[in-house]
Structure formats: C-alpha cells, structure tokens
Write a structure and sequence with these properties.
This is ABC transporter ATP-binding protein. The chain contains twelve helices and 14 strands. By secondary structure, it is of the alpha/beta class.
Length: 295
C-alpha cells in the first residue's frame, strides 16, 4: 500500500479566551519520527487530538491521503493517537481493566498486531486484570506505549509516552520504537518534555510556541542553524553582531550566547571566541524559554 501524507491547513482551536492552536499548518511525510516539543500549554496535546479528529476544531482541515479525516472511519483507522493517561482519568475509562482497554484498540485499529501486543505486555510487566485507575504512573505510560506500537497504525502519535517511566524503562521504550520504525517505516509523532534522551531518535522536529508552529524542519538542519558563542563580553558582542541572539548568560566579563548562526560563520570572523554545537534542548530553551506557562 502506498504511504499516505497527512496534512493540516490553518488549524485553529480556542478554549474560552485562550487560543490553543493559532493558524497551524503542517505536513507529515511518511517514514519519519517527528519530535513535537513545546512548553506546557503550548498546544501539543490539542494539536495531536485535532490531527486525529478526537476534538472538533474551530477552523482548518486535516486530510489523510487527500481525504478529510473528520468522521472518516477508514482514515481514522490509519491514525493512532495514544494519549497520556496520568492525572484524572475520564470516567468512561477509569474503571476499565488493562486488557479491556487494549481490546478496544484491537477492535478499532485494522492493523492491530496481537502477537506484538503480547510481547510488549510481557516486556513492561503489565498486569492485564488491573484497572487503569489502580495503575502506577509508570504502568499507565506502559499501557499507552503498548496501544500505540501494537496498533501498527501507519501514522502513530504518542503524547508524553515516557513521562512515567524510570530510566531503564525509557531506554527500553526508545529501543522498541527504533526497532519498530526500522522494521515498518511507520510515521511517528512523539510529544515529550524529556529532550535529553528523546532528541536522538527524532529526524524531524516540530516546535510549538503559544499555539503557533514556529519550527518544522529536519532535526540536523535545525541544529546547524544555531551555535553557542563564549568569551569576553565585548568580543562576544562583536562576534554575534548582525545575528539573532536568543539567549545570553553572563558571569563577570565572560559571556555565553546562543545565536541563530552556523558555528563556522561566527568562527570565520576571526575573533577570540569559542564556538560550540548546540543540543536540541538548548535550541528549544533559546526559542521558547521566555514563553509564559499556560493551559
């Protein structure tokens, strides 16, 4: 079956006076692992829910393979959104047993892989007879991971999948994710706050800030647009002149700046500064560090 493209055009969603999505447009190309990052309240969960028709949008349209996804049973069977179960569970699922919750996935997703689901349940040590509201946070995360991976949905979206896992379980999750991606070529969208570990698996990055999509590009290409510049404050200022300085830290006369400029371009100015590579977390903090916490 030919891989299909998911597109979103001019999505808008408000909750009262708060704008959760502000004219968001994007294209999810097949065969990538997208990292969806943004601060709390940036609109990540709302975007994933909108892309999979789990909430009505105020404006805009989402299409999969050229067909609108809203009330499109065929398209929705190809799109999995496995959302975080932590916090106050909806009354409709709180009392469900793990096996019943996963059975619903088996019924809804036409590509469901039961044998793989059994492997994952064993891997994470899930007790199928337990009710969701009796699970630890880590086990809740494991349930969402099993649902997402075993769905085998061509486009699979996961909201904070590793949030409740300990470090060993998180490593297991990312290993399983990469193994499945290598075997199937599925498209994944992973929303997470834990960038130190997750950034190594993303090949494309989506950054949301206050409901707007401010970055949508190849992960390596994004990192190459930034560098850190450190040295004496006046020399750093001269080295960064003409570039967008996104973050500055000063200690005495020593300054370190995060700038939107390739390290080679800054170094070519021949000034006495040190130019360094940046991590995805540093780019994220530079771009979104002053965003106000919100809904």
């Amino acid at each position: 079956m030919e891989p299909k493209i998911l597109t979103a055009a001019n999505l808008r969603k408000t909750y009262g006076r708060q704008t959760a999505l502000d004219d968001v447009s994007l294209t999810l190309e097949p065969g990538h692992i997208y990292g969806l990052i943004g601060r709390n309240g940036a609109g990540k969960t709302t975007l994933l829910a909108g892309l999979t028709a789990q909430i009505p949008l105020d404006a805009g349209e989402v299409c999969y393979g050229g067909a609108p996804v809203w009330e499109n049973e065929t398209a929705l069977g190809e799109l999995c959104f496995s959302r975080e179960l932590g916090g106050k569970l909806a009354a409709s699922i709180a009392g469900m047993r793990v096996k019943d919750y996963l059975r619903a996935g088996r019924l809804f997703y036409p590509h469901w892989d039961e044998a793989y689901a059994r492997e994952l349940i064993k891997q994470f040590g899930l007790e199928e007879k337990k009710r969701l509201n009796a699970l630890s946070k880590g086990m809740m995360s494991a349930v969402t991971i099993v649902l997402a991976l075993a769905s085998r949905a061509p486009v699979t979206m996961m909201d904070e999948p590793a949030a409740g896992l300990d470090v060993v379980a998180r490593e297991d999750f990312y290993r399983l994710l990469l193994e499945d991606y290598a075997a199937t070529g599925r498209t994944f969208v992973i929303s997470t706050h834990i960038l130190e570990e997750a950034s190594t698996v993303f090949d494309r990055v989506l950054i949301l800030k206050e409901g707007r999509l401010i970055e949508d590009c190849d992960a390596d290409a994004l990192l190459a647009q930034f560098c850190t510049v450190s040295g004496r404050d006046d020399v750093v200022a001269a080295a960064c002149e003409g570039y967008a300085v996104l973050r500055t830290e000063t200690l005495g006369r020593q300054t370190m700046c995060a700038v939107r400029a390739p390290a080679g371009a800054v170094a070519a100015r021949g000034l006495d500064v040190d130019c360094g590579a940046v991590t995805l977390q540093q780019v994220f903090v530079a771009l979104c560090g002053h965003e106000q916490e919100g809904r």
